[in-house]
Each structure stands twice: as structure tokens, then as C-alpha cells.
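User: Please predict the structure of the protein below. I'd like the answer in C-alpha cell form so I can feed it into my own downstream comparison script.

Assistant: Understood. Taking the following sequence of 145 residues as input:
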Amino acid sequence: MGCAEFAISEGSGDLVEALPFTTTEYQHRLAALRHELASLDADAFVSFTPENIYYLTGHDTPGYYFFQACVVTATGTPVNVLRRIESTNTLWRSWGRRAVIYEDRDDPRSPPSGCCGIWASRAGRSLLRQSSRPEHLCRPLGVKG
């Protein structure tokens, strides 16, 4: 599946419950990450671990054993890549409220691999991927625009 088949959904209206941190705190966290991206001349950061997704967007889920990712670019609100059943946790209960949703029958690798290059690498620079293994915390991927 290509990127065109995965649209970004956005939540609207009031959140179901209060966020654990203020909007200012989430903006500060994103600013710090974006400062690091700029210092590395990278276009985006992709995290696959629930702790970092929660830290950056407030997305919390018991479904952490399914594929999920968070894409942070130099501008704009982060985008979470999630199964449909988990998407309401981002759309109704998180700070970011933006998600690319995949169905259980889809290959969950398609949205990030098909879209990250389009979202994040228009200038043809690098993309950082956060791995769940500490020794590979951030490693550059050669993504061409």
C-alpha cells in the first residue's frame, strides 16, 4: 500500500479526559526534540516504543504489543501510526490528536515506510528512527526525497 491510501485523521472537539501534562509541556518536549533533529540535520524522528509515544503525544494504550509509531517532523503536530481499534486513544485522548490508521488486515509497516519519506524527507536529508534497543537509540536512515 502506498502513502496515498493512508490519510491523516485528526481528532476534534473536547478531549474525553484531561491530559496528564499541559499543552505547554508537550510543546516544550517537541521543541527539545526538534532542536536535536536540527543539530543532526535530520528531517524527522520516528519512535516505535510506547514510552516515547506517550511522552511526545500523550497517547496511552494497553495495546502496546501491536505495531505503533510516532512521526515527528520539523513542523506540525506529531502523527501516530496505529491500529484502528487504538486510534481513539490518539484522536480523543491525546495532545497530538493526529493518526494514520491501519486495519488489522493491513501490513502495519506500510504506513510508516510508505509515508515517512513523503512527510519527513522533502529536502532529501536523513530520518532518525528510534529503536527499542538502547544501543540503537537513534540511527540515521538514508531517506531520499
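That's the full C-alpha cell string. The longest strand covers residues 42-47.
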